[in-house]
Amino acid sequence: MTNVERIKSFLTELRRRKVWQIAAAYVVVGTMLTGAANDILPRLNLPEWTVSFVVIITLLGFPIAMLLAWAYELRPDADANKPPPVDTLGASDQEIRFCTTTDGVRLAYSVIGTGPFLVRALGHFTHLEMEWEWPALRRFWQLLAERNTVVRYDGRGIGLSDPYTGDFSEETRQLDLDAVFDAAGIEKATLLGISEGGWTAATYAIQHPELITHLILYGAYCRGALARPGYDPQEDHALVTLIRKGWGRDTPEFRQIFTSQFFGSDADPGLIAHFNEMQRVSADPDTAARYHLSCHKRGDARDLFRQIRIPALIIHCRDDRAVSAEEGRLLASTIPGAQLVLLPSGAHFFPTEKEILTKAAGAIARFLDGSKAPL
Questions:
Q1: Is 18 left (phi over 0), alpha (psi -120 to 50) or beta?
Q2: Residue 68 sits in which domain range?
């Protein structure tokens, strides 16, 4: 982040915390107070220095008032952890930038909001522009951006990032995150890992304890497909064949197999159609198949997740069709001190329903503020 961007972010934060308004109000009240002291105190036959004393105290109180306004944001405690109503949020434009990994792959990433950094680790197939075009897909990020500088990115070979013909691995995913952190000038951040991105986020948090302050895992797992009960290698092989043959077709029937696992049966048909198309545009069939295979090579990583030593919040939907809620419970019991929030939904993708996304955003706000999220 450049110096100009830092100054712009600081001024924006001053407005958000209403420091400008408090400063103006203090000047008005202070002027009235000193004027009254200058007029009234001499009439009471008090020493002349009492007027000077009032002026000095008023001046000294100004920086203190500004510090308090910054620290406490001067709003009721009852509202401090409450996310703003979804309907009041504007469709603020995201800012899309590009960076390059150390192995030469150009990545697209976006930035929105102000405040501490919150970085979304890649989960499934993303497309920064198409994700932002649909209101239900951008609301979650808008809510989080009210309190944070939210950074999202398209991983190598996906979305707006460069095509990639090499092997996908845990190492390449870490290289992608490294590039985004460096390009955005991030020194401290919360990592939000969604679905398979939870594995990537946890690994990064363990390897970079100096960078990550909090870890949020949504619809994630510590047992990969190979280690879960009921894993069928023949079924998985059939899915890969299906991806290679049908992923890029104009008709959505093949991609619908995956979409139906990510959203509840009562999801908006328009949202489903948009998501189907977003999957097609986000990756070509060969890339989609290779990425799927790389994720399904994962086994049991409970020993890895036990190494996490930062505050962790696990959010999972009770009726998740892609990764069962039992995996979320196992994850919460594996990470030392982790909190667990179960949402009344059957979705696997990040929340799109107004009630559910408000619950999720509220839980995240309370977690980051240091209070316990409700079970």
A1: left
A2: 3-75
